[in-house]
Amino acid sequence: MMANVYGKAVRKMTRLFATLIILQWMGLQFTHAQNSVTDSLINLLPSHVKEDTTKVNLLNSISWEFHRMDMDEVIRYAEEAERISKEIDYPKGTARAYNLMAIGYSMKGQNEKAISLNEKCLAIGKEINDDYLVGVASNDLGVSLIEKGDYESALKYYHEGLKISIQIKDTLGIAIGNENIGGVHYTMGNIEKAKSYFFDAIQVGEKSSNPFVQIGAYYSLALMKWDAKQMDEANSFLEKALQLSIKANDLINLSNIYVTKAYMEIDNKNNELAEQYAIRAVQYGEQLQDPLLNAGNYLDLSNIYYELKSLEKAKESARKCIDITQEHELLENEMYAYSVLTDIYKEEKNFEKALTYKERFMEIQDSIFNKEKINSITELEEKYKSKQREAENELLKSKAKEQEYIIQRRSYIAIAFGIISLFIGIIGYIYYKNYKSKEKINKELEARVQQRTEDLLVANEDLKQSNMELERFAYITSHDLKEPLRNISSFVKLLERSLKPDPDSREADYMNFIIKNTHQMHQLIEDVLEFSRLSSQSNELQKVDLNDTVDNIKFSISNTLSQKDVNIIIDQPLPVIDNHPTHLHFLFKNLIENGIKYNESQQPTINISYESEPQKHHFIIKDNGIGIEEEYYPQIFEMFKRLHNRSVYEGTGLGLSICKKIISNMNGKIWVESVPGKGSTFHFYIPKTLAA
After folding, report:
1. Cα 644 from chain centroid?
2. Cα torsion 355, 361, 364, 367: sign
3. How far is CA 228 from CA 186, 224, 232, in A?
4. Which strands sit side by side in the sheet containing 567-570, from one edge to the other?
């Protein structure tokens, strides 16, 4: 039973994020007086009110207010809003009605219907360029797909929602987007990537006055640490989330957090405290009067009592869950409640009742599956018939045009046939003469081409062999050169230990000088080897998300970024392109590190921007460093060319020449613009269509 605890907690967390995003974008604040708000809105809706956009918006608002009380009312008011919106041609109202109906059906357990409605909302939102509609539909689709276990598709929609949040500078949306994406990556086993998104959410939360941002982030990290058996850290994060939830009077999160604490106390064998926490979670849920949350809480309470071997209490909680689910048609929770009862009666050796509840479990499971399957097949069939009718109509139109064209063409042929016949004999004679002449020339050309082809094949084979030998030579040479350097460095350290020179003495200076220069020589050998490898590395193209590339670079140089207080700014999300991930990583890393290295500002700043041009990607990396004189522009891309003494700025002088070679191999271009004392801007083009 305990194996699914984390999955249950993640599902609760996902539903919570969906609610929070909608609350933020609607500009609403949670209130305990929701019934009175709903009544006030309904009072504004007399039957004689004109059916216009105002009435549609009011109906949608009433539908939303019912989402924590009565899903049938959510759907009823949204359907009325949809009807009027279609009559007056108000696409925004129609799309919002679809989204609200999707919320109602999702809470009732009809996930496939919810997905279909949100897809319609998303399509309209994109058509009318409405960021709000695109955002809520994308996020809700992600939530529904998580429920289905389709993490890849959910991730796509969560990213779309995050992109919208960034565009409209919605702090809460950015934080929750990172939370949702982090949760998916964690579930899929991408632990490091998940951590990155969770910490991004926390950083956003620290800059926000909205406590919901931090609560979600800390709750996610607590679940992650708990799953990794890092209990001290899990408790620390969960306590932070709890204190923020208490301060914000956030009953949803308080309910979820206390359920999680109950499960954690079971792991700690503290049964009494586990029971107290589980009961407290139920109490918070009942205050909200949210049937889905209450059903889930009683289901969790039943699970916890089962783990504590309090079987009578487990039965009572499971039956309360069933009462709520039957009243509100929450079939999925009802199904799991029967599963718990099956386990309880098995434990009591009452196999007759266990079998009864098992059959009820299977019956609901089959019912859900069949309904979803029938709805899905019906919808697919209707779509297919619609497309088929469209295709048949197009075919009939095409045939009519074709017949008209044939009749017209025959008349032209009849007129032109006589003229063409006159020329056939002449053309035939000329063709015959030319054919004989060309046949002789072609034979001679074929012999020459064959000879040239054989020569090229031999030359290519020789060149390939030569390149392989050069690569082996470069590798062996670099290895042989590094070996004496390692020996020198080791023996200098031995001398240093033996002599124990005064740190301020000349002997200490000499030793430091030797160590520093061996390190410099070692780096020079590595860079020369890297330069020689560029032409021989795999040319296989891959999908490269440059946002991930920059994130990986930031992680790899995080110490430098922290020590120098570096600010890396990305103006807009970078594209996903077909390219070589290793080459692009080196390219961006070298240009970013140069902007930090040659920089004397209090806060070095690197600004990365992107422009899409018809045939190529245009990237711009700008820094606020020391800058470069115009006369030195060509030199910086040459091998071993340095503009500064190594005692001032370390380096081998190969970084930019490797960047230039990478871009040249892609048939691209790189150049620099700079103002001395104010910084440098590196531009480079990469073709959009790159040969493998």
Report:
1. 42
2. negative
3. 11, 6, 11
4. 567-570, 605-612, 616-623, 679-687, 669-675
**Bigger pLDDT: 319 vs 252:** 319
In a domain, 9, yes or no: no
CA distances from 576 to 62, 195, 295, 548, 617 (A): 41, 22, 42, 9, 11
- Residues in the chain, how many? 692
Measured CA distances, 654 to 394, 475, 537, 649, 669 (Å): 62, 17, 18, 14, 17
User: Residues 554-576: pLDDT tens digits?
Assistant: 888 888 898 899 999 998 899 99
Let me know if residue 550 belongs to a domain. Answer: yes
Report the DSSP pairing between strands 605-612 and 567-570. Answer: parallel
CA distance 401 to 385: 24
Helices 91-107 & 53-65 angle (0-180, nearest 10)? 20
Q: What is the pLDDT of residue 368?
A: 59
Note the pLDDT tens digit of each residue in 467-503.
565 555 555 555 556 667 667 777 777 777 777 767 6
d(CA 277, CA 334): 23
Contacts 24+ apart (CB under 8 A), 75-83: 75/100, 75/101, 75/104, 75/105, 78/104, 81/56
In whole angstroms, give the CA distance from residue 347 to residue 309. Answer: 9
Residue 562's CATH number: 3.30.565.10
Q: Tell me how many domains the chain contains.
A: 1
The domain of 631 spans 537-687
- Outline where DSSP puts E strands in 117-201: none
In a domain, residue 178? The reply is no
Residue with tokens 């969790």: 300
Q: Is residue 497 part of a domain?
A: no
Inter-helix orientation angle 131-148/171-187, to 10°? 20
Per-residue pLDDT, 29: 34
Angle formed by the axes of helices 506-533 and 351-499, to 10°? 130
Q: 552 near 585, Cβ under 8 Å?
A: yes
> Residue 339 is which amino acid?
S
Q: Picking from 100-104, 241-245, 414-418, which range would have the lowest pLDDT averaged per residue?
A: 414-418
Place of tokens 């950015």: 174
Q: How far is CA 638 from CA 464, 533, 534, 595, 661, in A?
A: 26, 17, 16, 18, 10
What confidence category does residue 64 fall into, taking pLDDT thresholds of 50, 70 and 90?
confident
Whole-angstrom distance, CA of residue 591 vs CA of residue 621:
7
Query: Are 598 and 650 a contacting pair, CB within 8 Å?
Result: no
